Structure formats: structure tokens, C-alpha cells
Amino acid sequence: MPARHADAALTLYCLPYAGGNAATYRGWGALLRPRIECVALDLPGHGRLRATPALADWPALIDALLANLDPLPTRPFAFFGHSMGALVALELAHAIRERHGREPLWLGASACVAPRERELDDEHPSHWLACSTAEMVAELRRLGGTPDELLADAEFLDLALPALRADFHLCANQTRRARERSIRLGCPIWSFGGTDDSVSERNENLSAWRHETTGGFHQRMLEGGHFFVETAREQVIRDIAAALHALAFATATHADEPAYPY
To answer: Which GO biological process categories is it annotated with (predicted)?
Structure first.
């Protein structure tokens, strides 16, 4: 994926939550430029790629995303993922390390239970692919963020559930991959949590992200529920910009540039 803003010094790839798409990050680029280029990615079956089949297999998904990123930028890059997007970011980071010998400068994991704290259901590994529509609707209602009128709309469910089933299946099966992996990343990881999000009720859900890296860990709490990435959008962007600035631009001597570009 060629750089669209050649003057940027760093590329930030953003991954959406289950059932979401790149539109989640609309407007982020304008707030992060000129030094940080924000590239929001769609998964197959989502957003701009909704005409392609959603993928419920991790290797196939990572292959598809890496093909979309080819060639990787020569400049430093970072990942931010919200909810399921954090797991996708982690898998992408490991795949890039294994295939290209590079790592992200930073990884942000937002509103996501750490891989080693997620429940592993060996008896029903394909539960979300086979469960009833009613159970899918109940889970979406529990998570919040989807209006009741849409959950009662049969046409909407027919369109949305195939991708959501694939996404939920991926989330349920990523834990096994994490537990079987012996190598940790070397980049700093920041874990973001919402004060009113059920993910944050148990602190270890967030703090256990520290086990995914040898490169430092920071935990940040923001006001809001599971979708604080939208309700606390400006604060999230400020935090990301500050973290990336400290890592990538700490030696900059341009007196006319702000401490972070927002």
C-alpha cells in the first residue's frame, strides 16, 4: 500500500472492532498529519471490501491483509486496534516480524481482553459460526453499540451477521494462537480501557497485554463504555499522538512543531 502522504515520518495502521470498518477512524488522519499518516484498514467482508467473503480463518485473514499492505512502508509504522482490531493488530505484527524481519514501533490495544486472559472453548471451537440468530442478537445487545431497531431488522441481520459470525469466531480462537506462540513482540504496547466497559471490570483483562511484549507496557483508562474510541475520540487521538511522538520524534529539533501534532 503506497504512502499517500509522502512527507509523513510514520504510518499508523488502524483496525476496527468486530463488524466495524475503516469508517470508525474517519477524520483521524486530519488530526494526526502532517507527521503521522493514518491508514484505516477494512477486513474482507467489511466496509469497502464488503463484496468479498468475510474470513473466519486467521492465516487467510492475515495473508489478505498483508497483501493489501504490500509493499510495507520503508518508514516506521505502528498499529492501533479497537476490540477485535487489537487482536488483528497483534497477529499482523507477528506475521510481519516472521516474514519481513520488522516490527511496529508501537501497538495500541483498545477495549480488548488480553489474549492470555480470554476463555478458550475447546469443546465448541466453531460456536459462533453455528449458533442461532437469536444468540448472535443477544451478544450484540450485550456488547452495546448497535441500535435496537437494527437488531430487530431482519434485512440488516441478513447482511451483517455473516461478517459478525466470522469476526466472533476469530476472536474466540485467537487465544490458542497466543498461547502456542513462544516469541513476544519487542515494541511498546499501550492498553486502553473504558471506565464503564465490562472489559475493564477485571484489571488483568487489560494489564495482561504486558505479557505480549518485552518492549514496555502502559495502561490508560478513559471515560466511557466499550465504544469509548468514538465517544472519547479526541482524547484517544491525543494519547496515540503523544505516544508516537515520544518514540519517533523525540530527537526532533524543529522549534515550530508541537510536542504532538494535535
So the answer is: lipid biosynthetic process
Domain ranges of the chain: 10-117+184-248
- Cβ(118)–Cβ(84) under 8 Å? no
pLDDT value of residue 250: 67
Sign of CA dihedral 67, 69, 73, 79: negative
Is residue 200 among the annotated active site residues? no
Q: How far is CA 112 from CA 17, 49, 81, 191, in A?
A: 9, 24, 9, 8
Fold type of domain 10-117+184-248: Rossmann fold (3.40.50)
Q: What is the pLDDT of residues 184-242, one digit of tens each?
A: 999 999 999 999 999 999 999 999 999 999 999 999 999 999 999 999 999 999 999 99
| Rounded distance between C-alpha atoms, residue 114 and residue 191, angstroms | 9
* Grid coordinates belonging to 42: 477494512
- Whether the upstream peptide bond of residue 71 has omega within 30° of 0, thus cis, is yes
Residues in the chain: 262
